[in-house]
Automatic annotation (TrEMBL):
It comes from the Bacteria. Coiled coil: none annotated. SUPFAM superfamilies: UROD/MetE-like (SSF51726). The keyword Lyase applies. It comes from Chitinimonas taiwanensis DSM 18899. Its main location: cytoplasm. One of its GO terms (cellular component) is cytosol. Gene3D superfamilies: 3.20.20.210. It holds the Pfam family URO-D. The lineage of its organism: Bacteria, Pseudomonadati, Pseudomonadota, Betaproteobacteria, Neisseriales. This is Uroporphyrinogen decarboxylase. Belongs to the uroporphyrinogen decarboxylase family.
Length: 354
């Protein structure tokens, strides 16, 4: 593997000194880029794009050709794992992901098993291919959905506004809920470890729906299983530490608990005050975030102002990775991302000066 030329992102996650605040964007390879839309059209469908090593590599690198970002993130989807469990993932036009065979009865739940990782070989092939194509420019992030977030899709059968099916199961039959989560946690641990072996240099667990849980239920049904995954991950590979980021959207109430789960960094959504978050977690973990993705619709001067505000909120020192508080919108003007990246790299140096 090529020598890493820019390891600023990895050092920031480990709270080591950096010259500036590194930056990457959730969903940075996506529909806001015309070049992505062109490649997606060539692929035929979103799933075909995920499963085509060459095209998944191409779209992963597209934002890096356009912007001087500090990390690449594997182009894939969190639902690859339940798909490999046989739930029949498909994408309905304009409706997002759906499952043909959601978990709706006890027999189906009891039959759930950790999938053979060979069914996910296309993901690991993409990791290896992207890592090679990067030639050491920046680190590569691997990822997975959290056990609870995956369970939401597996039980609801797709996205949900109310989470009524999963929450009914959780309150009515916590034993079945824990069974799903235990299988998911083991699957995600194997999945992320295989990504690390294939070349991922950091990993992020996306707990997109953990924030929908009540206090106490979050700790029992989401955080507990992420903690189990973190404990089971390979934290050293290729002679380097492999940092782990945990991102619970809506998890700002529970930062102290998340900081105790063994992760290296916490992803923050835009509802969290960086200064307060830093005070609450102390020097236990790094922080990643947390610009409101909709701020990127504003004019470049306003974007720069928001960048300056967030950098000042975190303050001087190390352990901050700049990111959005959630994925970038498909309607974001690409030139506004240029303004964002330039502002972060330009203004953050003052906070890292000796």
């Amino acid at each position: 593997m090529s020598q890493l030329q820019n390891d600023t992102f990895l050092r920031a996650l480990l709270r080591e000194p950096t010259d500036y605040t590194p930056l990457w964007l959730m969903r940075q390879a996506g529909r806001y880029l015309p070049e992505y839309r062109a490649t997606r059209a060539r692929a035929g469908s979103f799933l075909d794009l995920c499963k085509n090593t060459e095209l998944a590599t191409e779209v992963t690198l597209q934002p890096l050709e356009r912007y001087p970002l500090d990390a690449a993130i594997l182009f894939s989807d969190i639902l690859t794992v339940p798909d490999a469990m046989g739930l029949g993932l498909y994408f309905a036009e304009g409706e997002g992901p759906k499952f043909e065979r959601p978990l709706r009865d006890e027999a189906a739940i009891r039959a759930l098993r950790v999938p053979d990782m060979a069914k996910l070989q296309y993901v690991f092939d993409a990791v290896s291919s992207i890592r090679k194509a990067l030639q050491g420019r920046v680190p590569l992030i691997g990822f997975s959905g959290s056990p609870f977030t995956l369970a939401c899709y597996m039980v609801e059968g797709g996205g949900s506004d109310t989470f009524s099916k999963i929450k009914t199961l959780m309150y009515d039959r916590p034993d079945l809920m824990h069974h799903i989560l235990a299988v998911n946690a083991e699957a995600v641990t194997q999945y992320l470890n295989t990504q690390i072996e294939a070349g991922a240099q950091a990993v992020q667990i996306f707990d997109s729906w953990g924030g929908a849980l009540a206090y106490g239920k979050y700790q029992e049904f989401s955080l507990r299983y992420m903690q189990q995954i973190v404990a089971g991950l390979k934290r050293q590979h290729d002679g380097r530490q492999v940092p782990v980021i945990v991102f619970t959207k809506g998890g700002g109430l529970w930062l102290e608990d998340i900081a105790n789960c063994g992760c290296d960094a916490i992803g923050l959504d835009w509802t969290v005050d960086l200064a307060d978050a830093r005070r609450r977690v102390g020097d236990k973990v790094a922080l990643q975030g947390n610009l409101d993705p909709n701020a990127l619709f504003a004019n470049p001067k306003a974007i720069e102002g928001e960048v300056e505000r967030l950098l000042a909120s975190f303050g001087h020192g190390n352990g901050h990775v700049f990111n959005l508080g959630h994925g970038i919108s498909q309607f974001t003007p690409p030139e506004h991302v240029t303004a964002l990246v330039d502002a972060v790299h330009r203004h953050s140096r003052a906070y890292h000066a000796a």
